[in-house]
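Observation: inputs received (chain + zinc ion).
Thought: call the complex predictor directly.
Action: predict_structure
Action Input:
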Amino acid sequence: MNKNKVIFVLVDALGYDVATRHFGFLEHLAESGQGAKYRLRGELPSLSRPMYETLLTGLPVWRHGITDNAVCRRSRFPSLFRLTREAGLVNAVAGWGWLLELYGDRPLPFDLSRDRLCLEGSGDIMHGLFYVADEYPDSHLYADGDSLRRLYHPDFLMIHPMGVDNCGHKYGALSKEYAAAAGDSCAQIAQRFAAWRQDGYQLVVTGDHGMDALGRHEGNEPIQREVPLYIVSDQVQGGDFSGEGPLTTLDVAPLLCSLLGIAPAEGMKAESAIHMKHAE
Ligand SMILES: [Zn+2]
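Observation:
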């Protein structure tokens, strides 16, 4: 069995503060040394589609060119999906339709009836299940991801829920609704954690950007930019390293490559402040 399998949970709009306050299970793993926690300074602009591309290619926006949510085209750089496919690994994703636009094989733009299921993709995404409704329940999205795990045994599985972002936009970052959505998302992870670890997966959880009190994210302030990074892996030292830095969303793609045992792409950051085990 491949020992380098990864589940990558990208909780859309999971700001650093809301995670610290409401991601109790992952905070517990960091506190007990069973997992690691870091604070990431998000790249700019703090928008979803530009950050999907940054997280999955390891490149800043000026370089990859996905400059706004409305830029609807294929990625022009190697993503985790392309790198895993080319390495002979299996990838799968349950996530927002923009991911299929960036890394899939279907005509643009995304069409829900045609593209919701892309179970045998010939693009960089091999096995995908997509949604485009803000209200799509996180409980179902996590189950979608878990279904892909059971069906395809992917080496790299991305699970991308939108419930936190949806509540943040509607009610703002200081609302009980945003807090509850974050807590619920963490619960979905906690409920599956034992099964995922039993199945041999490492776990990486982060956000693409935060959310401000007005229910917006795009700009340059900590509440909009800062996201947590939680890692559970036998390859990574456990503990709460959130006081260290500087780490940014550019560190996520090379981390995923390292955990998967594949070479990073050209242009990804070569050095990282993440504490790996067995490192000098
Ligand atoms: Zn948003």
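Thought: report the result.
Final Answer: The chain has twelve helices and ten strands. The pocket of zinc ion is lined by residues 13, 48, 165, 169, 217 (CB under 6 Å).
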